[in-house]
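Justification of computing resources. Each target in the renewal requires a structure prediction run like the one illustrated here; the chain below, 456 residues long, is used simply to show the kind of job we budget for.
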Amino acid sequence: MTKPHPLLRALPSVEKLLAASALQPILARYNRTYITDLIRQMLETLRRDILSGAHTAPLAEPDLVERITTRLRSEDRSPLRSVINATGTVLHTNLGRALLAQAAVDEMVRAASTPVTLEYEVSRAGRGDRDDLVEADLTALTGAEAATVVNNNAAAVLLALNTLAEGREGVVSRGELIEIGGSFRIPEVMRKSGVVLREVGTTNRTHPRDYADAISDRTGVLLKVHTSNYRVVGFTAEVGLEELVALGKEHGIPVMEDLGAGALIDLAQYGLPKEPVVAERVAKGADVVTFSGDKLLGGPQAGLIVGRKAWVDQIKKNPLKRALRLDKLTLAALSATLRLYRRSPRLPHDLPTLRWLTRPLNDMAALAAQAVPLIRQALGSAFSLSVEEATAQIGSGALPEEEIPSTVIAVRHSELSAEKIAQRFRQAEPPILGRIHNDTFLLDLRGIFDPQDLVP
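Resulting structure tokens:
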């Protein structure tokens, strides 16, 4: 009969550890069940390590308590960690896209900590509509007759298509059958919405007659999709929104456009690349336009739907709307953001996304002059640093071919790869995220406003 491993016999029971005097302060701060689970997990890990030979030294009770304390320090940190975005991507999908304006943050805190009129009309002491919190501002900003909101643009597309054309055909150009991050594919969203895809034209060329030839008594919607994350260049042709609207009116078929990023203002006025403005698309006659809240708009994640009242009213009545609706915190942030668009005399200052996008190069150069000595002091003389010109990108599929001038601090080491240097910066608290280009680690300064943020 094999004798138990002596180190296994030396491990205390869960109850003995829970009774240890050194653990009592911890039990006073944390839920007992939670600590019990941590102890069980720790002991199980130790048993495996002992049996595999990975652990060969005996552990006294204080050592075990210290292990629990170390594990607690690690778990006390929120899984949603703050990071420094020096990647050069302003709207970074993996980092949460748009940062909220302070006004939006304040509104979220208020909505989270006090009862609010989410669906209550004070003047008549009766039930209200949560869309009322944002509809007036959305219609004023876009020129649409009506508006509603759901939890993201994919949901907006799904809901609008289901309302306009469930069980019927949706006609869309082959060149606009997009796929974006997270496996959002127009053909699959159409199928899930109950709309039969009728693709027309070719990948690079679609003409008005292609749509006209596809229209039948089964047609429910003419769909146009803004190809925000790619461009087809060369021998190309596409049908403009005005032409599609004229065709829709001729046949009594609604025209819907998915704008994706969806800018509320003309970015060209700030020297940025042109992106379709929602109000312009509404003015061209689109019956329904959908777009995102957390991209170029600079607000929280949301799917915004604007258009003709007759269609938006039907969208609001769709049973799917309740499943996709926004919560009070997101509505609070979105409402505050929209009010900034209407009221702020200094929008590029108040809206973080616009502040990042419009930041002057001389501002970044001044910050680089402050940051380089601090980084050099932290890293040591073995690292070389230089300030260089570069380009940043907007991100999240917006203007994929367009880059904006930026300034970077290049960090090099004769014996360390760019990835090893990047790892060193990621180990900072909070982690500092840069990018690697031509085997050089770069810290892009477009979104950095405090030089201390770059010190690893």
